[in-house]
Specification:
Length: 97
């Protein structure tokens, strides 16, 4: 049971670390795709204006921490109570010995 609990905890942490690498890329890609589809211009022309680049950087700076916090909350909401109960059961079994 300890191994299972540790594995789930490590998996959650790994997913959150990987997400920190994925969120900026997906945020930039989504910004560019939405801008290109909305404006009808090619990517090079759409991204050639400094205000667009600044807006993309600002949106990434806002979305990455917000998504990271939301992902942590969702992991704790989904698995937190089960991991807590599993730890309580492990502690109860260890005290029983």
């Amino acid at each position: 049971m300890k191994t299972q609990c540790d594995s789930i905890g490590n998996w959650m942490k790994t997913q959150q670390r990987v997400a920190l690498l994925v969120y900026p890329v997906s945020g930039a890609g989504g910004f560019m795709l939405g801008g290109v589809l909305g404006s009808g211009k090619p990517v090079a022309l759409f991204m050639s204006k400094p205000p667009v680049i600044i807006a993309m950087l600002v949106s990434i700076a806002i979305l990455v921490p917000a998504c990271y916090w939301l992902a942590r909350w969702m992991f704790n909401y989904s698995f937190g109570k089960h991991l807590k109960k599993l730890n309580e059961n492990i502690n109860a079994l260890e005290e029983e010995k």
